[in-house]
Specification:
This protein has helices at 3-19, 21-39, 47-58, 63-73, 106-119, 148-158, 180-189, 211-225, and strands spanning 83-90, 96-103, 123-124, 134-142, 162-165, 171-175, 196-203, 207-210, 230-235, 237-240. The chain is of the alpha+beta class. The strands form three sheets. It has a four-stranded antiparallel β-sheet, sandwiched between helices. A four-stranded antiparallel β-sheet has the order 5-6-4-7, covered by helices on one side. Helix 2 (21-39) runs antiparallel to helix 3 (47-58), helix 2 (21-39) packs across helix 4 and helix 6 packs across helix 7.
């Protein structure tokens, strides 16, 4: 994403997520259940579950809700079984979109995702059609004004793969997915607290959209994100919504 608008795009996305707090809780619960089912209910032995619990705490999800859903997923209580399905497609201007879902009914989910793409100007693609345009990695984003030299030194010492400075002064620290926690904790110990920290699908190249195209793309993304079974949406559109 070009440096001049990365920070604005991230802040915009965070704001929209905060407006949908109830949906965020639902997504966190599903992530906790799938992480516990696939990797076990002990956070100390399950990095994915450990990260899900950290995110749950950040969103103020009650601890008893976290425990109850871990128990459901590991067989200590009855619960719904979810499976993970990824969809790929194109949005406005050929922008690439990845949609990660968790569902107990894949027929329903694919129908809803396909309908959202087709109704709002996108096209649902085949597996692998856009994923090659993204990198699975840990991403920590620091606000403009963060000491660049000190952060770069601390990040590389902590085992980060790369540090990218945007034109707006924001700084990204990129890690291998498995190193994300260690790098995040090492930076926090040195006083570097990111505005955004997640394991994500980061676009390698971006498509700039402005005016009506940007508005249409945002509408498409909003509709997809509002689907009940959608966990995460990744895209390579750089939206100028001014």
């Amino acid at each position: 994403m070009a440096g001049h608008s990365k920070w604005a795009n991230i802040q915009h996305r965070k704001g929209r997520q905060d407006e949908k707090r109830g949906k965020v809780w639902t997504r966190l619960i599903r992530e906790i259940m799938v992480a516990a089912r696939t990797g076990g209910g002990d956070p100390a032995m399950n990095p994915r579950l450990r990260l899900a619990i950290v995110n749950a705490k950040a969103a103020n999800l009650p601890a008893d809700t976290v425990k109850r859903n871990i128990d459901k997923a590991t067989g200590n209580a009855e619960g719904v079984s979810y499976e993970e399905i990824r969809y790929e497609g194109y949005g406005i201007g050929g922008a690439a979109i990845i949609v990660d879902t968790m569902t107990d009914n894949r027929v329903r989910t694919v129908a809803e995702v396909r309908h959202a793409f087709s109704k709002y100007g996108g096209n649902l693609g085949t597996e692998g059609s856009v994923a090659f345009q993204f990198k699975h990695c840990g991403q920590l984003l620091f606000a403009p004004g963060t000491s660049e030299d000190a952060l770069i030194e601390a990040a590389l010492d902590a085992g980060a793969e790369d540090v990218v400075t945007g034109e707006d002064g924001s700084i990204e620290v990129l890690t291998a997915p498995g190193d994300f926690e260690a790098v995040r904790d090492a930076l926090a110990a040195k006083g570097f607290n990111p505005e955004l920290a997640e394991v994500t699908m980061r676009a390698e190249n971006n498509i700039a959209l402005a005016g009506e195209d940007a508005q249409r793309m945002q509408k498409l993304l909003d509709v997809i994100e509002d689907l009940d079974d959608v966990q995460n949406v990744f895209h390579n559109a750089e939206l100028d919504l001014a």
